[in-house]
Here is the input.
Amino acid sequence: MNTSKVRKRCREHQFIINNINVQDAEDIIIAIFLRPIIRFGCFRRLFSAAAAGACLLLLFAFLSPPITTNQLLVVNTQDSAVECGSSRRIWKYYWDGNHQINLYNGCSEASTNFIPAEANTKPNRFLLVRTSGGLNQQRTGIIDSVVAAYILSATLVVPNLDQESFWKDASNFSDIFDMDWFTSYLSKDVRIVTRLPEEASGRVATTRVPRKCDPSCYSTRILPIFNRRKNVCMYVVQAVELTKFDYRLANQLDVDLQKLRCRVNYHALRFTDPIRKMGQKLVEKMRMKSDHFVALHLRFEPDMLAFSGCYYGGGDEEIKELSKLRKRWRTLHRKNPDKERRNGKCPLSPEEVGLMLRALGLGNDVHIYVASGQIYGGEEALAPLKALFPNFHTKETLATGEELAQFSTYSSRMAALDFIVSDESDVFVANNNGNMARMLAGRRKYFGHKPTIRPNARRLSKLFLKVKNENITWEEFALNVQKLQRGFMGEPGQINDNNNDAYKVDHQFHENPLACICKNS
Here is the structure.
């Protein structure tokens, strides 16, 4: 990124800090620390990064009183009114005082009405699927392929992973997931084989089902293909291959099918030993640094920004770069960046995420693990976030290059490591409503309701616009953030308000697996 582009980006984003009035200790921290950091980000091409960073840290140490988690208070998001100085501090509320966490547990056992695989599976009927997208989009496809096979009374062939899309990851199923565990755990539910039998290999019909196809849709569109006699070769079809298999199953299914989804997602899909061991090593390193830590799925990579159609102040060069990336998705329509942001479809910038978290009560002593690939804008974009949270960690900072060598050239395996650390975090912050965010939100509900915070992007975008156009105090900014985040703090039983959110909760079973969550007696 050239210097002129960086200067332009920083001029357009510096408004947040400049327009917050300096009135108290928190404001002093923001003013003293962030303003130089942003300038450092703008002109790092002109100065030594190491020298400038060291000077800023010294300035922070001598001029800024330390703000700890215990000093910054978080509002009780269930109170009828937001009051300054709430007695619930964020760590105490989430870890020590939130007894509601123990009120729920995951429950995905099959009912007595569920027909087991031995009785349900028809002979000489096989289902093949080709998943699509990155790791968590493919995970969705794998889960739904098991349910689709059950609906069709077919034997499932272990799904083929997408090796052709944006990420160009050549991994197979067994490179990421424990195949033996997958097939054995589900053996009573669906018959699964690792490859199509030789006698059926020449009897395959390929097709695609529409998005959110329900059981009757599968029965109407796919069942008739089985046993159909081909006119030319005069053979009977024994296998159907479904391509681009992502979100090809309806979200609303009967309870037994939903519970089958949960058994696949939360129990059968287990990462391989090397991935799990490396992931746990990263978790242990985070625990050595702090008893509690936050994982942030920043989702500010070039592909995400290009796909979203959003704009972040980088001028013509940003527009040119992201437009070029957008051409990789042939079906994407041109979007209005301002409209997308108003509708909550744009990820917050790293700076905005940091300010939101500080406003919610997270102090600068909090250790944050950032789950992300290559950030668009690099260190310039990350500088404000690192200024707010100097205890900033990634898998690359926690592990050596040698430790990551077997994973680093495979995007899905690197994403799997981020998945593990994020799942084990005390608080998970998802900066967009993407596949990983949905998967982890649902998983954390299923295994004990560990909180997942998602920005209320639609409302927050209006607040950031307000800050851009007028001066407000830090107290006013923080209270506004706390009000807007009601319903988005991941508390047990909390369902996001459809009128305030950029998505419909009842359309996201993987995010809200309510059929698989039971209240303890």
User: Anything to note?
Assistant: Residues 3-64+86-102+272-519 form one domain. Residues 25-42 form the longest helix (18 residues). The radius of gyration is 25 Å.
